[in-house]
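Would you mind writing out a protein's amino acid sequence and the numbers that encode its backbone to help me picture the idea?
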Amino acid sequence: MNRENFRVLIVDDEKSFLLLMTKILEDAGYSVKGFTDAEAALKILDSFGPNLIISDLKMPKMDGIRFMEEARKVSDADFIVITAFATVETAVAAMKKGAADYITKPLKDPDQLRIVVARIFDRQDLLTENALMKATLFDNIPSLDIVFAGMEDILREVKDVASTDATVMLYGETGTGKSLVAKVIHCLSGRKGLFVDINCATIPENLLESELFGHEKGAFTGALQQKKGKFELANEGTILLDEISEMSTTLQAKLLKVLQERTFERLGSLSTLKTNARVIAATNRDLKQMVGDGIFREDLYYRLNVFPILIPSLRDRKSNLKEIAHYLVNTISRRLGKETKTIPEAVMKNVMEYQWPGNIRELENVIERALIVAKGTELNITGIGEQFDARQEQKVTGDLKAIEKKAISNALSQTSGNRREAAEMLGISLRSLQYKIKEYGIA
């Protein structure tokens, strides 16, 4: 929402103060109408359609409280009330009637008004953005019958937990659809705020804190302006912390504080912000094992693991694989603007026999490539069946693991067993190195 589209109606019987407020807000870019008479203001409410109404409490003919009650009958605009007496009782009475905030007159400085109005604007702007986002989010989610095909027990768990505030921990291999399940939980929750996700593995450690909690202008080199973090954006909504296992122990401690106290600070700020964002975390690793290895905080693990859900691999959903494959063919065909193809039995046999280490994400990619090259009415062997061979895939995977194991052993040998130096030599994090050492059984 642009500020010029944000309409503000001001009602104050003191003309000089009315003109002052009008000038301040117009200079800030808002669309403003001002009235010295409450009854006259009521007459234009329907046609003007204000997003925000600012009204004096003490006015002749009709006081601010009554004006607010009458305005509520035709408008759902937010209210800010003005009081000349600066008494807590006056402001509290107005807030109980539904006012969003209050200001006192005379103004200490123009920022007193600008800040209060900007806060209302930001909140409404976020709600508008969320409404558009949520509509898109629902549109982009397949039917629950497809998302949870072969996972009816998981669907029941999702429905049970969605309406609560419980922290959810999603476990599953890469490509199993953990982020999609998180979106379903958000949509079923009815939460008013945004669904915000962040992949903890793809953002450098020195930037991840800023992405999560935001920063103030000048907080560090390159911080040219204030930035809201993911937790701030997800207030009233849901935040998905994908690949939570890759978060450093320093940030793990800060995340623990957010979960415990529901507060955080932007980098470079002394002000504490509150959040009631619902937290969903996801990982393809064994967090409990990582706790045992000393690379994941035990207290954070228990905070996150309130409601664990294990998303099965595609090979464990073989009885529903045909249904999922046909759905993807139809969906991707529409997206590509191509005629829907059928999957011959010979091709489907290959699909059923393959182990799909990349899960649904891999299946989706294979089908999309097949549709792009397909010429006839069917997805032929060339289009899909020959794109993979389970034995070859396993051989390549085995070779890569052997190469990786040898590289790690060499790095440890060259650094006399110093894991931190070995990790730097290999260009990976210490946490990843420790995980690989245990995976390959390297002494």
Observations:
- The longest helix spans residues 110-139.
